[in-house]
Write a structure and sequence with these properties.
Four copies of one chain form a homotetramer. Chain A is an alpha/beta fold. Chain A contains ten helices and ten strands. Chain A has one domain: Aldolase class I (TIM Barrel, Alpha-Beta Barrel). Chain A has an eight-stranded parallel barrel, surrounded by seven helices. A two-stranded antiparallel ribbon of chain A has the order 1-2. The first copy, chain A, is globular and about 50 Å long. Chains A and C meet through loops of A and loops of C.
C-alpha cells in the first residue's frame, strides 16, 4: 500500500554516490579550498561580498566599492542587469547594460577589489566574465540546465544561489551540472526559502539556517549565505548575518548602498555604510569565536 | 516599526493595473476563449492532454496517441527531451532527440490528434514548434525570462507551468512576460507546490487546488491542472483529476503510458489505458455536473 | 553520514501496524460505515454539516437550521463558544454560553436536524454532549491528548479536525488516541494547512485536497473537508467544496449564515442561503458523477 | 475583487495596540528584564537550559544535573511526563510520574540548579510547580487556551514554546493569554517549524532563526531557541545553537544526555557531556562577540 523506497525529497547515500558524486564529500573532513582573485574560500577567512543590488551609476558603484573595501569586504557585488518578476520597468534594467559592466570595472580598478556579479543569459557570459571574478547564477536560473552548461564552459568561478523552492537535493543536483560541465571553483549560496510564515507581508522568504550544516554534512563545497534577500528587511540583516557566521557559513553576501532608502531595487533591505562597518566588526568577532575570521587585521 | 504597505507575496489591485495588465481580468466575467488546432479553450469543453512523460519509441508514442485519442483526449503529450535534476542519465535524454520529434509527428498524424510538448531551450524552439501545437514551458523555466521572450516571439500557443515554489503573483508575472512579448494564446498550468507535508516521502509536491479559483479570480487566462506531477503517485491521480475538474480547471494534463511500471521516467505516477478510460468517463460526468464536459459525445 | 531509516514525517508500514493499528485499514477496501442520528457515514451519501461559525442568537440559529435543513443539510453546525487567537473579545464569546447550547437545542428540535458542535474544554463535555450528536474537536485541540481522552470517554461520535501544521501521521496519531480511549464513531476533517502561498493576505491556509486520497489510502475512517476555514474567502468556497466531493470526501462542512457580511466571526468566509442552495445541488450532481449523492431525493 | 485589508497572517500596528497590548513593545528599546531563581533574563547573560528529554531514572537526572551545572548551565531541563504522537508506549510515560518529579527535585537539590520542566495538564500544575522554577508549555499546548489560563493563575514563570505551525501572530496571541491571566515572567521559545524542506526524512522541522529578530522587533519578551527539537539531528545542534546566540536569542534550550544513543526518547538529537562542554565555551565566545555572555567566569 505504501512504498517509501523510491527516491524523494531527501538525499540518500545512493544519491551521493550516483547522482552527485562530484559535489559529495569523500570523507567527513573533505572540504574544498580554493582561491579566487587572491581570496581564499573554504579556509579560515569568511569572505564578504558587499554592494548594491543594482549598479545605478558610476558614482554610486565607485563610492560603494571604496567604502566596502575600506571596511574589509573581499568582493564587490552589484548587478549589471536585473530581471524582475514583471516585464515593466525602466529601459535601464531591461537588458545587460554595457555601462553597468563598465562602471563595475572602474569600481574594481579604483577600489582594488574583485567583483562578483550575476549573469542572466548565455549570450552575455563572455562580456560579464571579462569584469567578474565570480559569476553569480541567480535563484531563478538554478534549474536552467542549458544555461548552467554554458556557464560551466566559461571555466570561471561560480556562485550558485539556491532557488527559494528547491530542496538541498535539487540544489546539489544543479551544482553537479556545473561541476560536471567544467566549473572548478564553485560556491553555493542560501538566500531564503518559501515557508508558511515569514513574519512580514513584504518579506517573501525565510532564511534557512539549517541548510548550512545540512549542506556541509554532505558536500565539500563552500556554503555562502545572503541574509539580505532572505529577510528583505533591513533591521533583520545584521542578526541574520551574524547567525550565518556562527552556523559555519563559508561566505556572506550583503546588500550595501550609499543611501539605502533611495535604492532603485529592493530599498527595504540594503544597509548603509555605517551599519556595514559595525556589522563587519561584529561578524569578525563572531567568526573568531568559532575559529575563523572576517577581517584580516 | 512595521510597514506592511510594500508589495509582497500577494496580488494587490495596484499589481493588476500596473504589473500584470495583460494577464488581469478586465471584468469579473472576463475569460479568454480561443482555439488551438480546432480545440476550444476557456469554453464548455475541458480539454485533456494525455500521454507519457517521455517519448521512448515510435511504437510507444503511436500506440499511446491512438489509445488516448480513441478515449477522448484532445491533445497528445510527450516529452522529446527531458532535463532531470541530475546530469547523469542515458544519452537519450540528454539533448533534444530529433527522433523524439519525428515519432511525435508520426503519432500526431496517425492518431489525428494535436500535440503539446515541452521546449527546453531557445535554440530548439523552431524545431519543436514544427511539431507542437502548443509549446509547454516547464516549471523550471517559468522564471527564465530571456527564454520566455524567445518562446513568445514564436507566436505559438503556450502552456506555462507554475514553478513549485512560485506564488500566484510570480506565476502571473511570468505569464505577463509571454503576453507582453507576443504570446496570444496562453494557458496556465498548476502542477503541485512545495509544502510542509506531502504525505509520501517520494511525493515532493502538493496539488494546490486553491490556486484554481484564486487564479480565475484575477486572470482571464485558462487554468489547467496536472495531477500526475503534483501527486507523483498513481492511486491519487484519478481523485485529484476529478477534484480539479470540479474546482473549475479549464484543462487537465495526465501522464498515460502503455505500461506505467516500465516507464522510463516517473514510473510511479503514470496511469494505464484502462484507468485513463474510466477516468475520462468520470471526468466527463463531473464536468457535466458543473456545467461543462470533457467528452464530445 | 546520513540515516534516513528513523521514523519521520511520513507513515510507514510499521507505523500502521504498531502506532495506529486501530485507525489503519485492514484491507484495501476496508472502510468504516456507521450511523449517527440516522445519518450514515462512509456510505453512498455524503453528509453535509452547515451553519454559522457561532451561535449568535436564537433567531439566527433557528432560522439557519430550518433553512439548511430544507436545502438538504444533514447536520446543523454552530459554535456555542469560540476561542480566538487573542484573549480580548466581547464577554459573550469568552466561556461556554449555556444559552448557545439552549439555542442550538431549540434549533435542532424545531428544524428536526441533528447537531455537530465543538467542545473546547473537558469540563464542558457533558453539557455539550447533551445537545450535540457529534462532538467536534477543533484543530487547536488536536494534540491536546488529555482532552482527547476525556472526549473519548464520553463515547459520543467525534469529528477530529486536522491541525493546520499537522502531518497525516500526527493527525492519525490523534485519531488513534480517540479510538484507543473509547471513541467508536470517528470522522476526520481536513480544514486547510499552512503553506508558503495561500493567495490572499487574509487567507491563512491552503486546502490540502491531496490528503483526502492519502488518508483514505491508509485509514478506514471517513474523511470530511471544511472548505470554509481552509480558504477563508467566500468566492472560493463553492469550487473547493465541489473539488472535495470529487476527490472522494466522505462529508462536507460549510459555514452558512443568514447575513454573512454581518457574521460575528469570520465574516469573509460564510455563504448565504441562496449560495448554499445552489451549492447543494451542484455538490449532489458532482457526488452522483462519482457514484455517491448528497441529496436524498 | 481583492481585499487585502482584513487582518491575516502578519502582525499589524493595530494588532499591537488592540490584540497583544501586553506582549507588545512600548518603545523600540523596551525589553523585559526579570529574575527567576537568581538567573536574570533579558540581560547580558544568555541562560542555558540543559538536560535530557525525559527523566529516566534518579541516577540519570542527578548525574546530568551535576554535569551540566558544572559546565555552566543555568537551568536543568527534563520531562517528568511525555506525551507522544501515538497512544502506545510503556506505562512509565503515560501519566505524570510522581517519581519523575521526585528525581528532578533531588537533582535540583544535589546540583544546586533550578529546574524548568513541562506541565502537560491542568490537574498537574500544582504538583509540577512545587519542583519547577519555570513551567514549560509545550508546542502542542500553545493553543490550549483554557490550559494557558490555568497555568497563568499559578503565577509561576512560564516558557511558551511556539507551535510548529504557528505564525508569530498566533504565538504572541497565546503569550497575551498568559500575560492577561496573570503570568508575570514569560519567555518565548522557538523550536522549529514545518517547512517544505527540512533536509532529512527524520527531521520534521526547520529552525526559524528569522523569528528571533522578528519577534524582538515587536515584543519585549525574551526569546529562547531550542535547536535540539528544531533539527532533530545531533550534528546540527551545535551550529544551530551558535547561530541562535549570534542572532540575539535570549536563552538556549538543549537536550543533553549521559548516553545520547541510549536516550529513551529522541535518541538522535541529544548531545553528550563532552559536546555540551565544548558548545558552552563556543556559545560563550559567540555571545561575547555580540555583547553578551553565557558563562559567568
Amino acid at each position: 500500500m505504501i512504498d517509501n523506497t523510491f527516491p524523494g525529497k531527501d538525499i540518500t547515500l545512493d544519491d551521493l554516490a550516483t547522482k552527485i558524486p562530484l559535489a559529495a564529500k569523500k570523507t567527513a573532513e573533505h572540504k574544498s579550498v580554493f582561491e579566487v582573485a587572491g581570496v581564499k574560500f573554504g579556509g579560515d577567512v569568511v569572505p564578504v561580498f558587499a554592494g548594491p543590488n543594482t549598479v545605478e551609476s558610476e558614482a554610486q558603484i565607485v563610492e560603494t566599492a571604496i567604502a566596502v573595501r575600506r571596511r574589509g569586504a573581499h568582493f564587490l557585488r552589484g548587478g549589471a542587469f536585473k530581471p524582475l518578476t514583471f516585464p515593466y520597468r525602466g529601459p535601464k534594467y531591461f537588458e545587460l547594460r554595457e555601462e553597468g559592466l563598465t562602471y563595475l570595472s572602474k569600481a574594481k580598478r579604483e577600489a582594488g577589489i574583485p567583483v562578483i556579479t550575476e549573469v542572466m543569459e548565455a549570450k552575455y557570459i563572455s562580456a560579464v566574465a571579462e569584469v567578474a571574478d565570480i559569476l553569480q547564477v541567480g535563484a531563478r536560473n538554478m534549474q536552467n540546465y542549458p544555461f548552467l552548461e554554458e556557464v560551466a564552459r566559461s571555466r570561471k568561478p561560480v556562485m550558485l544561489k539556491r532557488h527559494y523552492g528547491a530542496s538541498l537535493r535539487d540544489w546539489l543536483g544543479a551544482a553537479e551540472y556545473l561541476l560536471y560541465h567544467g566549473t572548478e571553483k564553485l560556491i553555493l549560496c542560501e538566500r531564503g526559502v518559501v515557508a508558511p510564515h515569514t513574519h512580514r507581508a513584504a518579506s517573501r522568504f525565510l532564511l534557512d539556517i539549517q541548510v548550512v550544516p545540512a549542506a556541509q554534512e554532505v558536500t565539500h563545497l563552500p556554503v555562502a549565505v545572503d541574509p539580505s534577500h532572505a529577510s528583505f528587511w533591513r533591521p533583520w540583516v545584521p542578526p541574520l548575518a551574524l547567525s550565518a557566521i556562527a552556523a559555519g557559513a563559508d561566505a556572506i553576501m550583503l546588500e550595501v548602498h550609499p543611501k539605502p532608502e533611495e535604492a532603485a531595487v529592493d530599498p527595504l533591505q540594503a544597509i548603509d555604510f555605517a551599519t556595514f562597518d559595525a556589522l563587519m566588526r561584529r561578524m569578525d568577532a563572531v567568526a573568531r569565536a568559532v575559529g575563523r575570521r572576517v577581517l584580516d587585521s
